[in-house]
Structures are given as structure tokens and as C-alpha cells.
Amino acid sequence: MSLPSEQAPAGSAQRMKLASPPMPAPAREHDWLDQARSGDLAAFDQLVLLHHAAVHTFLLRQTRSHAEAEDLAQETFVRAWRALARFDASRPFAAWLTRIAWNLFLDRERVLARRGAMHSLDAHDEHSAALSSAAGTDPRVSHQERELDAALDASVAKLPEPLRLAFVLRVLEDRSYEEVAAIAGVKPATARTQVAQARERLERALAPYLEDRP
Predict the structure, then answer these.
(1) What is the pLDDT of residue 52?
(2) Least packed by Cβ within 10 Å: which of 39, 53, 84, 94?
(3) Architecture label for domain 12-18+26-210
């Protein structure tokens, strides 16, 4: 038994992908970046509008809370504005934003861990409940598939940080290995290895849910 190549379990990953916004087009991004780096806040507002949906969706997959994802998304753009003068224009702006968002998420996790208040992964988890609710309204989705959805969501959340980042970016957000590597600060070959390791761990975690499927 193995997961389909380059994918999470069939059906489950596809439903998780439905919420992914399209990657922003770079139409005027370069111009807005130049203007924003010169202190033009209106130009930076255009960059926020261009990238907000993608940043929010990325953070939602990590926090599984719409409110927390929005808070972190807002902070991501605040940090980006403050650090814009140090942005390397040779790098993709979207990758830079995603890295800021990921670092903020990790900071949040460490704070919660110190407080002994790590977010729950049970049925009361906001995002898992939302996924289950959405699936429950679809007559094509069986009870078994809803269980698999919830198990996949929880299993992804339990992956080690580097593997979770690589898996979410590559499998759930369809980003290239070059993009994954740029965000994670690793080589593309390392990104490939991390995705493969994440898939192997998920296979083992989801084996009880997959072995009885036709």
C-alpha cells in the first residue's frame, strides 16, 4: 500500500486543495515592489491585496483556525513592510512572504508550547471540523472518506516542522520544488527528500484508514 506519487491520499488531498487560491499573477508586482521599497505605502497595499489570500490559506493549513491565520497574515505583512528595504529583489516575493509567515507560525507554536496550551487536534479543532462539515454536505463523500480527511489533517499537523512545510507547499499547494526550496531555505534535492519522508510517515499513520479502501 502506498500513496499516489506526488499526492496525499486520493480524494482527501483533492478536497484539501479546493481551498487553495490561485498563485498571484506578477502583472505589476515588480513596479509595486520598487515603489514600496521607496516608501510608497499605497503600492505596498497593492502587494497585500495580491498576496493576502495565498498567505492566509497557507497559515490556515498550519493553525487550523481562521482567526489565528488572519492574525498571523496581518503580522506577516507588517513584518514584510518593516523589512522591505532588506528584501533581495532577485528572490520571489511570494516565497519571501511565505517564509515570514512560517517563522511567525513557529514563534506562535513555541509560545503556546511554553504555556502548555498547544492547540487541540481532536474533533473540536476548528479547521478539522470545517473540513468534516464541508465533506459531510457532499453526498459523494462517504463516512469512511470523512474519517480519512480528519485523520490526514491531524497527521499532517503532527509531522516534524520541515517535513510539514515541504508537504503542504508541494502536495497541497502544488508549488514547485524550486519554490519549496526557496521558502524552506534548502536545496531542491533536500525539498524532494523531505516531501518523500513526509509521504512515508503519512502512509504509516493512515494505513488503518487506507487498507480497507477498494
Answers:
(1) 96
(2) 39
(3) Orthogonal Bundle (1.10)
Q: How far apart are CA 109 and CA 168, in angstroms?
A: 17
For the cut 80, the answer to whether the pLDDT of residue 136 exceeds it is: no
Measured CA to CA in angstroms, residue 113 lies from 71, 107, 126, 143 at distances of 18, 10, 19, 33
CB atoms within 10 A of CB 122: 9
Domain ranges of the chain: 12-18+26-210
Residue 97, CB-side half-sphere exposure with 13 Å CA sphere: 28
C-alpha span between 69 and 134 (Å, rounded): 19
How far apart are the C-alpha atoms of 132 and 55, rounded to whole Å?
Answer: 23
Model confidence, pTM = 0.72
Per-state percent for the chain, helix, strand, coil, to nearest 5? 70, 0, 30
- Residue 59: C-alpha distances to residues 2, 51, 84 (Å): 28, 13, 21
